[in-house]
Specification:
It is a single chain. The protein has a 5-stranded mixed sheet, sandwiched between helices. The longest helix has 17 residues. It folds into 3 domains: 168 residues, Glutaredoxin (3-Layer(aba) Sandwich), CATH 3.40.30.10; 48 residues, no CATH class; 85 residues, Serine Threonine Protein Phosphatase 5, Tetratricopeptide repeat. The chain is α/β, with parallel strands linked by helices. It is built from 14 helices and 5 strands.
Length: 340
């Protein structure tokens, strides 16, 4: 088994670069003024604690009393803004759960255990969507449980449903890399000591990651293609290539061009170029099911070379979203129906 660091860059890694603005958190942040930070009330000592406090958890993390307390916060309307602001220092992983969901308890236990193992480099926010339904709406939650990270106030979709510890750790390893690329490298000082440093990426994968940091998606794609030439079965490179090719297709589009593409796709349902372009926009904007269904619908209506082109693009979008994602599984079933 490959180490977590060498696994495919999950949707989380691409999402921070692609999904800016996909979730509007501003309304939630404005619902209530931030509560006073524990330990910084008027008249307290002027020096701030060495580590930022975890909202709603009492003593500041990193103090002598904090020890290795689990870094889990129950999310409310009152502390949500603080958690979003905290995401400028450490990534905050929001676990959206519900009492009626049998998978919720397992996801929360797994996330808490894994987040705590990173030694304060992550915070877990557990959000009961029955008590805080606005958050589920803001994150466009389609199933419960769902895990979504926030880095510098920007949402990074992680996964829906259950996930085993190895899968969660692989996602969070990649999340920390993306956070570091965006200057988020803090630590709260709580939690259990991190186990070990992740293994370094293979050279071509590292070259691709470095190129992504620079916004050079063409160079990143070239690195992944070279990795596939050297090892055609490299699933990590295949997924990474699909993601950076999507970034490259979207990078030059202006807001006016995006609107024109959507209008054209609506007016010309059998226009391959327009349908694929809007599918890209939908997937990158967090409307994954809409994007995948759009391509499946086109395939069902068309035949010949255009159908095959659309099928190949759909498989690439599966890699972008993540082949283990439930929405991909559903789209595969729909594809089988229209093909056979």
């Amino acid at each position: 088994m490959s180490s977590p660091a060498s696994r495919p860059v999950p949707p989380a890694a691409a999402s921070l670069l692609n999904l800016r603005g996909a979730v509007d958190l501003s309304a939630l942040k404005q619902r209530q003024a931030p509560a006073p930070v524990p330990g910084n009330a008027p008249g307290s000592a002027p020096n701030a604690p060495a580590s930022p406090p975890v909202p709603g958890e009492g003593a500041p993390a990193g103090t002598a009393d904090a020890g290795h307390a689990p870094l889990r916060v129950n999310v409310t309307e009152g502390n949500f803004q603080e958690l979003v602001e905290l995401s400028a220092q450490v990534p905050v992983v929001f676990a959206l759960w519900a009492a009626y969901s049998p998978e919720s308890a397992g996801m929360l236990d797994t996330l808490e255990r894994v987040v705590n193992s990173y030694g304060g480099r992550l915070v877990l926010g557990a959000a009961d969507i029955d008590a805080f339904p606005q958050l589920a709406q803001a994150f466009q939650v389609q199933a419960v449980p769902t895990a979504v990270a926030v880095v510098k106030g920007q949402p990074v979709p992680l996964f829906q449903g259950g996930a085993d510890e190895a899968q969660v750790r692989a996602l969070l390893d990649e999340l920390l890399k993306v956070a570091a690329a965006n200057g988020v490298t803090g630590s709260l000082g709580g939690g259990a000591p991190a186990d070990t440093e992740p293994a370094p990426l293979p050279p071509l994968h590292q070259a691709a990651f470095d190129a992504i940091e620079e916004g050079d998606y063409q160079a990143a794609a070239a690195a992944y293609r070279q990795a596939l030439l050297e090892m055609p079965a490299d699933a990590e490179a295949k997924a990474g290539l699909a993601q950076v090719e999507l970034m490259a297709r979207l990078q030059p589009l202006s807001a006016q061009e995006t609107e024109a593409l959507r209008t054209r796709a609506a007016d010309e349902p059998d226009n391959l170029e327009a349908q694929l372009a809007v599918a890209d926009l939908d997937v990158a904007g967090g409307h994954v099911e809409d994007g995948l269904n759009r391509v499946v619908t086109f395939i069902g209506r068309n035949f010949g070379p255009e159908r095959e082109t659309a099928r190949v693009r759909l498989l690439e979008l599966f890699d972008v979203v993540g082949t283990s994602d439930g929405r991909v599984a559903k789209a595969r079933q729909n594809l089988a129906r229209v093909l056979f």
